[in-house]
Amino acid sequence: MTVTLEVANLSKSFGGVHAVVDASVSFQPGKVNAIIGPNGSGKTTFFNCVTGMIRADAGTVTLAGHDVTRASPDRIARLGLGRSFQVCRIFPRMTVLENLLVAVKNPSLTGALGSAKNPTAIAAARVWLRRVGIDHLEHAEARNLSYGQQKLLELAGVLMGDPEIIMLDEPAGGVNPALIGRISALIRELNAEGRTFVVVEHNMELVMSLSDHVVVFDRGRPIAEGDPAHVQADPRVLEAYLGV
Ligand SMILES: Nc1ncnc2c1ncn2[C@@H]1O[C@H](COP(=O)(O)OP(=O)(O)OP(=O)(O)O)[C@@H](O)[C@H]1O
């Protein structure tokens, strides 16, 4: 799998706030890419522009050779990019299995509702639940899961779309250490199978142990990129984090 994702000169402002400024990033296909940066440095805004959730003011996003700068999140998903959210997006009163069945990519509402009874979709959902380690919770209402388990459910929902590139917004945020280990192991396994990851994350230990390529944002711009050791030694990165 070698779906490429390239972002050129992306900018997005909210009123007078320049959240992302002329950001150009080429993510490495088949690798675990991380985006780090201080709070408010534009990581989530960048992420939302790339995945079609918000419209950039300028710049281009190219996915698998297609210009998707103004494409809908659905089209971007159909081209092979799946994403999670900083704050988990699940249906709290549905069961774990039902959440996965509504996550199936469907061109129509009837299709989406139909997948609830589709044996192939149900079988796929069970495979992913087993894979992320919450198959024993299939019939539990999603709201009764721990926050970490909800993150695993959301990841299983992303995987239902069989994406080649997976973008995760703070996968370890608010998750207990045991489940961080599980999420980290899963990312490794899925990456070893050929899926590319782009992970926005504050947990430095996780970023440095998991990533092949790290992009550092500061005040809306990528200021450094490279392998974890290279980035950690970059004085611009220390300055961005410590303000020295
Ligand atoms: N919808 C919005 N309306 C107005 N300002 C926004 C909006 N979204 C983000 N911002 C501002 O844009 C800047 C970048 O925010 P963003 O959430 O992208 O940063 P971040 O690096 O993801 O931060 P964090 O690490 O805290 O999640 C911040 O100053 C933020 O307040």
Q: What key phrases describe this protein's structure?
A:
single chain, 244 residues, alpha/beta, Rossmann fold, six-stranded mixed sheet, four-stranded antiparallel sheet, 10 helices, 38% helix, globular, binds adenosine-5'-triphosphate
Q: Could you walk me through the main structural features you see in this protein, from its secondary elements to its overall organization?
A:
The chain is α/β, with parallel strands linked by helices and 244 residues long. The chain folds into two domains: 1-80 and 163-244, P-loop containing nucleotide triphosphate hydrolases (Rossmann fold), CATH 3.40.50.300; 89-162, no CATH class. 38% of the residues lie in helices and 24% in strands. The strands form two sheets. Strands 6-7-8-3-9-10 form a six-stranded mixed sheet, sandwiched between helices. It has a four-stranded antiparallel sheet with strand order 2-1-4-5, with helices on one face. A hairpin with a 2-residue loop joins strand 9 and strand 10 (221-226). Helix 3 (96-103) runs parallel beside helix 6 (147-160) and helix 5 (119-132) packs across helix 6. The relative contact order is 0.19. The model has no long low-confidence stretch (mean pLDDT 90). Adenosine-5'-triphosphate binds next to strand 2 and helix 1.
Task: Briefly summarize what is shown.
This protein is an alpha/beta fold and 244 residues long.
What's the helix and strand layout?
Elements (H helix, E strand, L loop, with lengths): L4 E10 L2 E10 L5 E5 L6 H8 L7 E6 L2 E2 L5 H6 L2 E3 L12 H8 L5 H6 L4 H14 L14 H14 L4 E5 L7 H16 L3 E5 L3 H7 L2 E6 L2 E6 L1 H5 L2 H8 L2
Parallel strand pairs: 3-8, 3-9, 6-7, 7-8
Antiparallel strand pairs: 1-2, 1-4, 4-5, 9-10
Helix pairs in contact: 3-6, 5-6
Bound molecules: adenosine-5'-triphosphate (ATP).
Adenosine-5'-triphosphate binds next to strand 2 and helix 1.
